[in-house]
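Quick one: co-fold with pyridoxal-5'-phosphate.
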Amino acid sequence: MQNTKRNIPFFNYPQLWLDDKDMLLDQINETASGGGFIMQKDLSDFEKELSQYSNSDYAIGVGNATDGMEIFLEAIGLEEGDEIIISSHTMLATASAIVTAGGIPIPVDIGDDNLINPDAVLASVNSKTVGVMPTQLNGRTCKMDLLQDIADKNGLFIVEDAAQGLGSKYKGQYAGTFGLASCISFFPAKVLGCLGDAGAILTSNEDIYNTCFQIRDHGRNHEGDVVRWGRNSRLDNIQASILMKKFPQYNKAIERRRQIATIYDENLSSIEQLKLPEKPSEDSDHFDVFQNYELEAMDRDKLKIHLQENGIGTLIQWGGYAVHHYKNLGFNQELKNTDEFFKNCLMLPMNLFIDDEDVLYICSVIQDFYS
Ligand SMILES: *Cc1c(COP(=O)(O)O)cnc(C)c1O
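Sure, here it is.
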């Protein structure tokens, strides 16, 4: 085990640039020198790659994933007062997109897998419910067959917050392809991150595709004619060119994340004060891409401080707030599992900038804390 103190930030943002600086400079130079700033070939190339990779008929680059959700909800025809059920264990953006699109987000409790609990979904369906928007959180896909069944029986649509889910699968099917539409985020710290804000909408529905395509660029259709009201939420072309450059390495990046998760699991699973995420496994129902490594820890706050004192950065997801905790935004639900989870949850470093020795060091510091 490693004993010498290491400095391991939770996510080393400068490294995103420094690790690939020459490649990135070349790419930016090439794209910018050709004047390729807005809606150029890099974007359409990336959209094509992304739709192929994720097994979706269409991908539409947008400014960020939050915009993507707002846009596809508008495209679906969400109406004032329509309720959409979401997991409370998600970024507030899932809820805010629904509000911006005129709907009402209804946060429900999580199940054993810390993702949306299908039973809780069913219990929250009422006459105003029009859809369910599960979040494929931490790079793990929800039990979509159970959710689909509930949706079918109650005449609801499914859309997905797959901001963290690119490449993740459930029963062999990719996150982002279960519902009418989904969003992916390319925020720098996401599994496939760029150097700023960017996102995409995935859909295999041609009408939704066309409407989203129009909304993201001032209502213009493929011929450039304005056919409806729209807005500006285009995926920046330089960012698209950078994403194109990084995409060929994406499967390797997922493999590395799964390796890190395996090392965490091997070294932490015997600590009974911890509850770990399920370890990577090819043959179970889930193929996880480990956007995050989020565990539950006894004495979480003390552990966090202990890790910090030993040079290790950790993060409590969403600043420690589930959606229903935002009482000032009008939420008044009591969600037992989610509340319990947020008392103990902690995310360990999980990214391409840490090596095996770093992971072993983190594990030894945690072992030391509980022994
Ligand atoms: C990051 C994230 C978002 C927001 O993505 P942006 O591209 O920053 O808008 C939404 N939902 C989840 C679950 C996320 O992790």
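If it helps, The chain has a mean pLDDT of 97.
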